[in-house]
Amino acid sequence: MIAEIGQYALILALVLSLLQVALPGWGALKGDPVLMGTAGPIAFALFAFIAFSFGALVQLYLASDFTVLNVVENSHSQMPLIYKITSTWGNHEGSMLLWVLVLGLFGALVALFGTNLPDRLKALVLAVQGSIATAFLAFVIFTSNPFLRLVPPPGEGRDLNPILQDPGLAIHPPLLYLGYVGLSVSFSFAVAALIEGRIDAAWARWTRPWTLAAWVFLTLGIAMGSYWAYYELGWGGWWFWDPVENASLMPWLAATALLHSAVVMEKRDALKVWTVLLAILAFSLSLVGTFLVRSGVLTSVHAFATDPARGVFILGILTFFIAGSLALFALRASELRQGGIFAPVSREGALVFNNLFLTAATFSVLVGTLYPLALEAATGAKITVGPPYFNLVFGGLMLPLVFAMPFGPLLAWKRGDLLGVAQRLMLAAGLAVVAAVVIAAAADGSSVFAPVGIALACFVIIGALTDLAERAGLGKVSAKVSLRRLAGVPRSGYGTAIAHMGVGLCLLGIVCEASWSTETIASIRVGDSLKVGTRTLTLERMENRTGPNFRARVAVFAIREGAVAKGTLEASRRTFAARQMGTTEAGIRTYGLSQLYVSVAEETADGHVSVRASYKPRVLLIWLGAVVMAIGGALSLTDRRLRVGAPKPAARRPAKPEPRPVPAE
Amino acid sequence: MISASLFTAFALMTAAAALAVLWPLGRTRALKGAREADLAVYRDQLAEIGRDRESGRLPPEQAEAARIEVARRILAADAGRETVADPAAAPATWRRRAAAVAALILIPAGAAGLYGALGSPEIPGAPLAERLAAPPDRGDIAILVRRVEDHLAQNPNDGNGYEILAPVYLRLGRPDDAARAIGEAIRILGPTAERHSARGEALVVAGNGLVSADAQRAFKAALALDPKEPRALFFSGVAAEQDGRPAQAAAIFRRLAAEAPAGAPYLPMVRAALARAEAEAGPGAAPAAAAPAAPGPSAADVQAAAAMSAQDRSAMVRGMVDRLEARLTEDPNDLDGWLRLARAFTVLGETDKAQGAIKAARAAFKDNQEALGRIDAAEKDLARGG
């Protein structure tokens, strides 16, 4: 009964999504306020029915109702509660339903928070949003129906893919989808603006929070995915340039570019056409990502199931939305009035620089990801575009971008003073050079990468702090006044500085991990030891343990530093009977920001175990940096002030003591 | 059929969906134009600049510049807007009615149509806990199996449990589990010919009809304990056949057919296998060209038959006999076919039809002395074995 109700709710959602396209669209065409007014209530109802349907599926998983094929294929009655819930989206059908749920959520949020939008724009935005919902609901219902039934029901399910039986599954997909699908809102706004043929600074003000929110979630989602891969796959790497990872990186890069160009548009009414194009590209790339992951073109952990019909269907959706929106763009872009002029050296100019490099970086990742696929389709040759390509091209594009990052926020709008900015960054640059020299001296000058990387990271972090210090007038006014000014810096200002600092921290982690990780691989027996860095690991014993739906073979290591015992560490391999599959559970010990990482392979008959142990200094900074970026974004999101770029730098005057104003609106 | 409670739920959901569309159609509201919305944003921006300036966060010159910029935007917003403020943009009642009618038709009809095509209202939900709590006579085999499994997890040395479970696994299409269960039974209860050959059979089914080395070992073990164990003999024959030794296979099948008690359920299969093996081996039989014309059970058939209950098995045999008969009616020039058909009818207890087949064979080969001789021999054989 619950399965059928869920199915019916999903079908009703499909019908409603069609109406969400037709009625507000018709209303916008005719300027009929009543018809346009249906957009909001339909969007709420659409979300409610999708949520109801999703809830039904969760309930089926909780109850282990094996009359539902999807539950049979991806669940096990002995799984812990949390995995029963998360297995709802730990499979193709369920994860697409989650995708649609998030889409419905964003539609409802636009309806809820869009009260300040003009009717026509809101109706058009929701109509475009509705068309995306129609396409994906149809995809779920016709090619990936999670509510298919099975008679007679088996007595036990086939279990969730063991790799996915991890708390990461509770966090990573929802965050990533909030990011992917959140970009649909900027996309809908862009398409609506193109249909209307007008776009202005107010438009940028309305789209800003959506882009920002999507970007924050995408950042966290990618970071979580990377950390999950790091500790679960047992290779100890944090980024593999795997096409699926690239699929999430591309929309992130495009969204980052969009975020920055939207600032220019909001404050200076410039870069309009470009911003609209980026909004289209960002969501298009997230559709490409969905296609790559869901169609089965790629086989990886993420391709739960492969079915050609699905691939063709998603390809159809992809073509329709990308080609359609780009065609619309080609038709209407010339009608958008340009505004706001600026000198090349200015805040706007810096943001254009940022956009150029981010777009080029996106393109380099796109080429590296799609070229092997295209080549295989055309000639049948299988090639892999691996880390060397990406490190060189992507890294090469990111270096100048990161170097320029501290300059941007210090430049004034409209026309800036590069020399003045450079002077103000002297301290940051000086400290960075000192750091480089110290590192080079300590590392015997064997590698240029580490000192340069560390220097760049320091420059970015200190540069971001310089921005805040400048805003507070540190050193120019009394400490008390500058403290007050610091408190008065808008949250978006803090957001920028913190997010940029996050980039620096992330870079710092990457450089440290790449330069100073030590790894030891050895085949040892119980009682043997191996050395990793300054620590000695002794395999104390191997033991068997039983989990709810798996058996584990656990290697227990004793850690010693010199002669001092420093506790134990456990690495294990789990075997899941239902799927006859195993997973590696790396043993990880965290020391501050550094980690000791141990993974074990299958035991041989004579009791030898292959052990891979590495010490990764400051590795946590990689993800911590991403989290800091997201915090910056979130801080900026809470700043609901309206932004107007005040041109022309002027001598600062002491501020009068006044409390911070309440945000406008 | 759709139950009353399910129907009520569907009706309520449909009504809610329709309401979500009809409710806003019933409201009258004024258009919130782009101009007002834009101006609201710009007014807020102006107010904010004023506040920033007063609090000293924005120097007066900058504030003034920003104010001018916003003013410019306001003018631009005004200029671009004349076309939109269109008096015809009033809500029209007919449009509202059309939308309402469309919603009232499309929502129930669309949902019912799609659900009719996709839904399975006749299947009740069955949460695991409920199934486990239900009395065991409900015929929920999967749950019975699960109960035995749970029992065995607690009492891993209950050999009888495994013995009971194995054939059920085989019927449920889980031959690997079946083989494992019999293996456990052998471990606990000790080996018998019957158990070894049952395990071998499960392995054959798991291997899609192929008698693997593992399975052969199991059958050898069975025959070591009881050289007459029919199942082990049969599969040894199949193994010989698959290894390309049809003559040996035919010998095994012949012996099995001769030793079988009258009316043994496996006889038709043995005879069919024998005919096939003979056809492959015998120089007297038709050459290679005839081989496809005399299809015995394929590996898949054997596998299916092994996994079936006696009743299902005879249904499968029945189907094969019918196919054979149909083919011979079309093309009667197949002596082996007729003889096989006659044998099959005899086994199925339909002696009249067996006689009919013999008669038809005689009619088809009335000019062929050698064939007639074989038919006579077969008739005698059938009368004896029947």
Can you describe this structure?
Chain A is of the alpha+beta class and about 675 residues long. Chain A has helices at about 1-30, 35, 40-60, 70-75, 80-85, 90-115, 120-145, 170-195, 200-230, 245-270, 270-295, 310-330, 345-380, 385-405, 405-410, 420-425, 425-440, 450-470, 480-490, 490-515, 620-640; strands spanning about 520-525, 530, 535-545, 550-560, 565-575, 580-585, 585-590, 595-605, 610-615. In chain A, strands 2-3-4-5-6 form a five-stranded antiparallel sheet, with no helix packed on it. In chain A, strands 1-9-8-7 form a four-stranded antiparallel sheet. In chain A, a hairpin with a 2-residue loop joins strand 4 (about 550-560) and strand 5 (about 565-575). Chain A is globular, with a radius of gyration of 27 Å. Chain A starts with a helix and ends in a 27-residue tail after the last helix. Chain B is mainly alpha-helical and about 375 residues long. Chain B has a domain at about 310-385: Serine Threonine Protein Phosphatase 5, Tetratricopeptide repeat. In chain B, helix 2 (about 35-55) runs antiparallel to helix 3 (about 60-80) and helix 15 packs antiparallel against helix 16. The longest helix of chain B has 26 residues, at about 95-120. Chain B is elongated. Mean pLDDT of chain B is about 80; it is low at about 80-90 and about 285-295. The interface between A and B is large, with 89 and 90 residues.
